[in-house]
Amino acid sequence: MTNQDTLENPAKSIYLGIGSNLGNRFENIEKAKFKLSQNDIKILSSSSYYESLSWPNPKNPKFLNIVLNVKTNLNPSKLLSKCKEIEIDLGRKKTKRNSPRVCDIDIIDYFNKDISGAIILPHPRMHLRNFVLLPLFELNKDWKHPIFKQHIKYLIFSLSNRDIRTIKQI
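Structure (tokenized):
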């Protein structure tokens, strides 16, 4: 018996979020995608680009974000290590939390599993972030949060009006 491919079962997929708000944001994200593909991480699909205000300080440069549906044999810890390595390769510096950055790669969801310990999945704040929910919805309109068991539409409708108004698809 063969395993069902992730394209056939999008609820059981791996989703990565990539963001940038320093330098050439488009180029930074495209370089991150290229480096992911060079490291045993196959990109199955990519959302559109979304531009949103920087959080928690909206005076910082705006972020550009995408969500990727990927396939890899890397376990969550190894995948996270590879993502952090790519961030550093692209010029990410160790700075204060939530400060502007060249590249940020987060694991949003890993096969719809609830994982806690050294790594927490799904991403613990993804259900509050417009720049994750809207691109994820674009890729998988049937996605449900593995812990809350809430449909992605419900999570999007739970966002504030400000969060909906201040993001735009590019």
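Residues 57 and 99 are 8 Å apart (CA to CA). Residues 1-8 have pLDDT under 50 and may be disordered.
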